[in-house]
Amino acid sequence: MKYVDEYRSEKTARGLAAAIRSELRAPWVIMEVCGGQTHSIVRYGVDELLPPGVELVHGPGCPVCVTPLETIDRAHAIARRPEVTFCSYGDMLRVPGSRGDLLSAKAAGADVRVVYSPLDALELATRLPERQVVFFAIGFETTAPANAAAIEEAQRRGVENFSALVSHVLVPPAISAILEAADNRVQAFLGPGHVCTVMGTLEYEAIAARFAVPIVVTGFEPVDLLEGLLMTVRMLQAGRNGVEIQYRRAVQREGNPRARELCARVFELCDRKWRGIGQLPQSGLTLAREYRDFDAAHRFEVAHIETQEPADCIAGRVLRGLAKPTDCAAFGKRCTPQSPLGATMVSSEGACAAYYEHRLLPLTQTRSEAEVLR
Asked: Considering the domain boundaries, does residue 332 fall inside one?
């Protein structure tokens, strides 16, 4: 299949890994930013092909994982209201809040529904005019254009019973925060391919210049990642900073101008708290003033929420590249996908979920169990 099979070629992957081994002259710590990259690295054993001198650490690029606990608790408070139909992507239903998750709220009688796009939620609002339909609008810049389009369309059509609980976060401020931290170990980044498809690479060029680091924007298949790592190692060893694009079949320097213009109309920058990381200035998107009537947090007055994080969850350290999931004493024991302590064990892009599914689970399965689950 074009753009799939050739990027999963074992021969090509092993050739790229051999090139990294032969060219490596010093140890380097490289962070893959996106949770989709993390899952591919762990699933295909990309990290196991690398020489010991190349250490991969996992970044905060899982939107479900970094959605702040306060926002999760606000979602639960809204979803439990009798007049509300709460719509979300499936990943968010298992994310633990201070007191349970959205599936628990659904089991207790809340009208919680899984949708596949914000426009699905908007159409539901038109069919249920007696209900307040709320869409959980989370994610990085990748999902922001679709959410902006739904909100703009709701305003155009006058759908007054539709609103969105918005918790968009932006990747560049998170990378800057990692590089500014006193305990930072990261020397280069594999940049987020899907985010850059929308936003382009201009913001990353400024970061690379400011902190003198290489950033290589990659795709998500094994060959993408290994080629990106080879490009990164070559930049590091030559002492070059800047941005290079491995994911050329999808990413252009200027991104998608129409998507960027749409986001600029509907959203505005705001300070945002990241789960496990803390408050980052100008790192989020909130609804612009002219769309504030569609802000669910304002409509349902759930601004003040008291939260409580589990004390033994180290997801914050994992998201900052300071620890691996296996460093956590609760990993695979008290914390599993069935009973998660943190969002990194729930999300399809979470590092803990990736390690559990592709590293821990296969070690504990019999041959027949593995075949059934494959």
From this structure: yes
